[in-house]
Amino acid sequence: MSQAQKEIWFITGSQHLYGEETLKQVEEHSKKVTAGLAEDIQSPVQIVFKSVLTTSDAIQRLCREANSSDNCIGLITWMHTFSPAKMWISGLKILDKPFVHLHTQFNRDIPWEEIDMDFMNLNQSAHGGREFGFINTLMGIDRKVIVGHWQDPEVIEELETWTRAAIGKDELANMKLARFGDNMRNVAVTEGDKVTAQVQLGMDVRGYGVGDLVEYVNSVADSDLENLVDEYQEQYKIASDDLSDDHFNNAVKEAARIELGIKAFLEEGGFSAFTTTFEDLHGLEQLPGLGVQRLMEQGYGFGAEGDWKTAALVRTTKVMADGLEGGTSFMEDYTYHFNPDQMQVLGAHMLEICPSITDGTPSLEVHPLSIGDKSDPARLVFNAPAGDALNVSLVDLGNRYRLLVNKVEAVETPDLPNLPVARVLWDPQPGLKTAAKAWILAGGAHHTSYSQSLQVDHIRDFSEMLGVECVVIDEDTEIHDFKQQLRSNEVYYGNYKGIR
Description:
Layout: E1 7-13, H1 20-40, E2 46-53, H2 56-68, E3 72-79, H3 89-94, E4 99-103, H4 117-122, H5 125-138, E5 144-147, H6 153-173, E6 176-180, H7 194-200, E7 204-208, H8 210-218, H9 222-235, H10 240-243, H11 246-269, E8 273-275, H12 290-297, E9 301-303, H13 308-320, E10 328-337, E11 344-348, E12 363-366, E13 378-381, E14 387-396, E15 401-411, E16 423-428, H14 432-441, E17 447-451, H15 456-466, E18 469-473, H16 479-497
Parallel strand pairs: 1-2, 1-3, 3-4, 4-5, 6-7, 6-8, 8-9, 15-18
Antiparallel strand pairs: 10-11, 10-17, 11-16, 12-13, 14-15, 14-17, 15-16
Helix pairs in contact: 6-13, 6-15, 8-11, 9-11, 11-12
């Protein structure tokens, strides 16, 4: 999960009009700002000062270097002085890494009694930033603009959010995803155009027969199997009666074999996300449950029932949230509580919910599964704690992609003695009726990435980098305005940015 080798390059725009002494001060200030941001931004990337740019050729070279660098995932641009925008055109035309326009200045306050024209000439961000903004707007370049002093906590927070979005874009652009089996039955929303996804988003989705996986499962060494079963017994709560039950132990052992087989397949192929389907389990003794849960906890993306878009989204949001408090999991709105006193959603799946979202010790259990016609699968059972979270869905609408976000508030889950699956209970904002209606109108999937770590702005910044529509359902959502937003977005994304 570490992104420690990834870099955000800090570049400064200026020109030779002001003389070499001024340019030395510009570079000195730029290095101090970069060092300050590198210290204050709590994101798993490095903020690196790159250059003060004063000519069209230098800008173009820098943009080519950024494009070809595997480590560079984005740029922070600052116009310290006035940087004539015509010299930015050739570089911006070829730049394919995201950038943020930091509209700041080195000093926070104007030195009222000492200010002179030398100070004014040096500190022209108010002037230069507008010139840079004009050329980007003229060229139709979508970018984030952050305004304020570089030591302002709000500016730091906005920059950190943006850097995490850049991490997500880079992850998605380099992702390999393995599908074991195809899409399940005739489900529509889990389908989609995988070729277009690779063209627009970057993820490389590859399909494999379950038999390809079975070979890895059957090749697991007995010693590795025993070690993993021992790990289970150390990490999870297990009922004393189960420990002496042959049926339980055999099921857990088979789950461990499947986990080791899937992990070996993913590691050998360089995959960071995967899907399974309970419709296609030929050669497997049980539906992968426990292993999927544990692999998600280790950072892999997952989507059930062949849902490759959600698998990619779970992996991407996990990477974006690296180092933040809380977990991220594959999720499904499973069933509703329509009590008028408090309408709620129970989120769960048959087996595959990530333990990263619980603050307790999961219970390792084996129970029958009414779907799939296989032996009883092992799974981890737990509740997720109360707190704010997001449900995020990536849907393919044919002419574009849409990221749909719903802010939710998880609440304490009541005792559910007859429901042996991991689960979370939440109040969707602004309420179940409006939230569900808006989600359905927007074509949102029943599968999501559930994140306790990310905020709406992480997803907004991420979507802008991808050129993908983002629709948010929150405490301010009203259906009439929401429908109008969808109509407006259809015109914009369907006929301009999102046309394919």
